[in-house]
Amino acid sequence: xxxxxxxxxxxxxxxxxxxxxxxxxxxxxxxxxxxxxxxxxxxxxxxxxxxxxxxxxxxxxxxxxxxxxxxxxxxxxxxxxxxxxxxxxxxxxxxxxxxxxxxxxxxxxxxxxxxxxxxxxxxxxxxxxxxxxxxxxxxxxxxxxxxxxxxxxxxxxxxxxxxxxxxxxxxxxxxxxxxxxxxxxxxxxxxxxxxxxxxxxxxxxxxxxxxxxxxxxxxx
Length: 220
Prior knowledge:
Order of helices and strands: HEHHEEHHEHEHEHHEH
Number of strands: 7
Number of domains: 2
CATH superfamily of the largest domain: Beta Polymerase, domain 2
Radius of gyration: 21 Å
Mean pLDDT: 91
Largest sheet: 4 strands, mixed
Shape: elongated
Number of helices: 10
Oligomer: single chain
Low-confidence stretches: 209-220
Strand order of the largest sheet: 6-5-4-7
Strand content: 15-25%
């Protein structure tokens, strides 16, 4: 699936894209406003979709002067599943957070990065996850950690249909990579979505080697 295009999981048509726009805000939209968001669709195609959805009652159509406006009918029986689909990205991140919380103190930090974080996923994109392990937990801890890493990769695929690509660092490996200014860590600092630990801790580990990070996409 494409986390940035959640309705594509159930329909490849323009209808899903239009519904995603309407479900994104409790507001009315004109055809031109929807068109500015869905730049690859034609205004005429958007108009046809909106009118078709209005005949189903899913969309409320009104006219202000000569301007047609549309909004999602939140009282419609289909509104709840439509809004749930629109929130699939947040639902995925929340579910991942809940799962990683069970790892306890063995996990120091985790973040989704790459196309899943930047909103540029394709249908066949991997979902990239960085894991930073806390300390040295011995051989038994290694076995538990290995099992957990395998399981979280499996869960990501089960939840989304995409391969989970895990990048893992032991504590000493992470310190060495941070000191060397590893580019992947810089990417995570700028665009990653935090799902375990805190972004402030992660950036603090990188600061001595590469200066202050803005962390503009932090999900604390």
